[in-house]
Amino acid sequence: MKVVTTIKELQAELDAARSAGHSIGLVPTMGALHRGHASLVERSVSENDTTVVSIFLNPTQFNDKNDLQRYPRTLEADCQLLEHCGAQIAFAPSVEEIYPEPDTRHFSYLPTDAVMEGARRPGHFNGVCQIVSKLFAWVQPTRAYFGEKDYQQIAVIRRMVADLGFKLEIVPCSCIREEDGLAMSSRNTLLTPAERAIAPRIYQALAASREFARSHSVAATQQYVVSRINAIDGLDVEYFAIVDATTLLDVSRWDEATGVVGCITVYCGSKPIRLIDHIKYK
């Protein structure tokens, strides 16, 4: 596997791949890679001739400087994992390489980027679109792979792809979980042992709500999840929204949309650590 740190190096490697007629898969990441990321990389490797994985902790998508500072950085281990998964290129640039000047572009994809995470993390999705659009332009991938744990992010990126006319396929990949159900996340490494012990109860509540929803309204199901999680000492629900799987707008009835998803963010512990998850109802 080749590790490159500049755009010039990246494009030289990709020009050679394209000249050989290779399809190119891209897996954008912020590093601190785990088995969930590995599943994305392995899928890309299986479906493309060349796989590029970006490792870049993008500052423009953090509206909380403390969150950015605490985010784990494990480049050496990340590269070992990527090589084991069969990736051909790891792109690990500096902030100065990506942003030699401030990126002043503004992206707006209402209502998709204004609800849930968008409402609570001002500027977050603008930062996501800034970095992902740059990666798409430089890599020109055949396919790009994203985990469904960040369900809203995929919806926003789809809007951006359509808006900017990128010719690529967005490939959503199922959330990978620990054996106890906790959605894999780089932030999980920040949890204390006590916090890690209670964090799986987020998904337990979500999973139980799927059965509960069969005989209860959307509003009752929403209250069921929030009450059940908030009853656990150390967990605090920021929001739980039950939404149309395409528009991400709230639904009031189960038959209101062909696809319905519950998206949740929970604060865990005294620090606290912000954990996100989702459940598909239909």
Task: Compose a concise summary of this entry.
This protein has about 280 residues and is an alpha/beta fold.
Give an overview of the whole structure:
There is one protein chain. With 282 residues, the protein is an alpha/beta fold. The chain has 2 domains: 2-173, Rossmann fold, CATH 3.40.50.620; 186-276, Pantoate-beta-alanine ligase, C-terminal domain (Pantoate--beta-alanine Ligase, Chain: A,domain 2), CATH 3.30.1300.10. It has helices at residues 7-19, 35-47, 65-70, 75-85, 95-98, 117-120, 124-139, 151-164, 193-198, 201-212, 218-230, and strands spanning 2-4, 24-29, 50-55, 89-91, 143-147, 169-173, 235-244, 260-268, 273-280. The strands form 2 sheets. It has a 6-stranded parallel β-sheet with strand order 1-4-3-2-5-6, sandwiched between helices. A 3-stranded antiparallel β-sheet has the order 7-8-9, covered by helices on one side. The radius of gyration is 19 Å and the shape is globular.
CATH fold category name of the largest domain: Rossmann fold
Radius of gyration, CA atoms, in whole angstroms: 19 Å
- As a percent range, the share of helical residues equals 25-40%
Catalogue the unreliable spans. none
CATH class of the largest domain: Alpha Beta
